[in-house]
Amino acid sequence: MTDNPLVLEELTVWSTPLFVTQMPDHEFLKEALLAAVYQQKSTQTTAIESQIAPKAKHALHESTLDFLELADANVTEVKRALEELILEVAASVNGNFWPEDMQAEAHIIESWYHVTQKGGYHDAHSHPNCSWCGIYYLEPGDAATAGKGGLNRFYDPRVNAEHYADPGTAYLGGHGVWDFTPTDGQVILFPSYLKHSALPYFGDNDRVVIAFNAIIEAY
Length: 219
Description:
By secondary structure, this protein is an alpha+beta fold. The chain has one domain (19-92, 103-156, 174-218): Jelly Rolls (Sandwich). The chain is built from two helices and nine strands. Strands 1, 2, 3, 4, 5, 6, 7, 8 and 9 form a nine-stranded antiparallel beta sheet that branches. The longest helix is centred in the middle third of the chain and has 22 residues, at 73-94. The chain starts with 18 loop residues before the first strand and ends with a strand.
């Protein structure tokens, strides 16, 4: 009979990486970007210019899916900075899977703004046409104030995780959701398969975000 202690090796599989950072030069860029958002919003002929899932959105304005293509130096700088962040994230999580000599670039293929007013929300959804998604909180409004809503909710992708609960499943979180409270200038990046929503917002000030979808190309 052996006296050797039992050795357990923990294997973490199917984890979901999310990344949060602060937009470089946000304080310098914010007012110019807000001006670009509101200028384009003033020309909208319908609240959901993208025409994508309008019934899933309420009390918000959404641009067409090319906002970061505007011929504006500040918008161009934001796109460049976001693509750098996306590439850094993709390289970090894929480092063990990319060939050593591989070069890659991140390309934002779709981008749009949301200007959300009191009572506004966006139902749960995911983005199937890209590898990474992100939200830049240009002006979170009153979302950081308790009771004002406007949080982004992310949904557990482990579809059976809530089938049974006892003390042995406490590590799962118990609710199947993770609520993210945005602050001014934050950027959150997440894989495109992750379902998310914008919870009802009850602030008096507009909640303004720039959202984007990106792909990674290798050469």
